[in-house]
Write a structure and sequence with these properties.
single chain, alpha/beta, Rossmann fold, 2 domains, six-stranded parallel beta sheet, 35% helix
């Protein structure tokens, strides 16, 4: 199947979209187009439309750009991946005439639904959201919507044979709702934090990391803790869980039902309902290498079996036929 993919890379080499296209190329004849949403070349690919809310634009892919790639590559499928991007309404009509299927993807639901998917999801032949909440509560039933869980690529995230500097690592930017838990963990454990804006609280701070540095950061710890809240306060299964599983770490996050769709409780992932339970569980695991290794190995095996981007793409493309 020939797939024309439009996307951009906010976090460069460890961006979700960057990992996705690496695996898309394994399962299709793919032409990958970088739309440069996050640099000064953006205007050559998209037109920002602020008419819907005045703050968060819809980024309509320019018809002449899409038309040029369609004529050059003659795809069976066009994928528009995240970034608030969509094909124009005129282009959807033209692609339908040419029998080219269209796939839209949102990677930041539920937070962006109101000013992204709500506006253009129903224009695509197939549309995917990362969020179970969005799937159940936000998208209209007539939209051809499905869930696309996060994943990771073995080409980018993998176990490294390097020293484990930390009991627990946190990989992500600072937000006030994360501070108290991070500070509590730092009182008891050797904690390493990779991300921007964190205040000093007894943990080792390393700043933002990308590419190989991101991979090394993940491999520097024994356990990985994921904060499940989004910026808007929703609960989500975050992409970091799958990236950490790909590096054979012991996964840790809050107790919420959706996460058990992907990892088995207390066998492939450690979950907690309050800080006391979290401290007790982590203290036990740190003292018991067999328990640590068992959970790490099981989450890694589950990742390889079910949660690579290659497997996600295979499911998407098989649905198209």
């Amino acid at each position: 199947m020939k797939v024309l993919h439009f996307g951009a890379y906010w976090q460069k080499e460890n961006d979700i979209v960057f990992a996705m296209v690496r695996d898309l190329a394994k399962v299709s004849d793919a032409l990958i187009v970088d739309t440069h949403l996050y640099d000064d070349k953006k205007s050559g690919y998209v037109m920002d439309d602020l008419s819907y809310n005045g703050v968060n634009p819809v980024r309509w892919l320019k018809d002449d750009v899409v038309d040029r790639y369609v004529k050059m590559f003659e795809p069976n499928v066009i994928v528009v991946n995240a970034g608030g991007m969509s094909l124009s309404r005129n282009m959807f009509s033209e692609l339908k005439r040419l029998s080219i299927k269209t796939v839209g993807i949102s990677l930041s639901d539920p937070d962006v639904y109101s000013y992204n998917g709500n506006i253009y999801a129903n224009l695509f032949d197939y549309y995917y959201t990362n969020s179970l909440f969005s799937y159940l509560n936000q998208y209209k039933k007539e939209v051809n919507i499905d869930i696309l869980p996060f994943a990771a690529s073995c080409d980018i995230h993998q176990p490294l044979d390097i020293p484990k500097k930390h009991d627990i690592i946190i990989v992500g930017g600072y937000r006030p709702d994360r501070k108290d838990l991070a500070a509590l963990l730092a009182q008891t454990f050797n904690v390493g934090i990779y991300g921007q804006g964190w205040p000093h609280m007894g943990a080792a701070l390393y700043g933002n990391v990308n590419g190989v540095a991101h991979l090394i950061a993940l491999n520097s710890g024994r356990m990985y803790i994921s904060f499940s809240r989004t910026s808007a306060g929703y609960t989500n299964v975050k992409v970091g869980l799958f990236e950490a599983a790909a590096c054979r770490l012991c996964l840790v996050t809050e107790n919420f039902q959706e996460v058990y769709n992907y990892f088995e409780k207390d066998k492939e992932i450690v979950t907690y309902t309050d800080n006391r339970e979290l401290l007790d569980k982590l203290s036990f695991i740190i003292r018991n290498k067999n328990a640590l290794d068992s959970i790490s190995d099981r989450s890694y095996s589950k990742f390889l079996a079910e949660h690579t981007w290659e497997k996600r793409w295979t499911k998407i493309l098989s649905k198209i036929g």
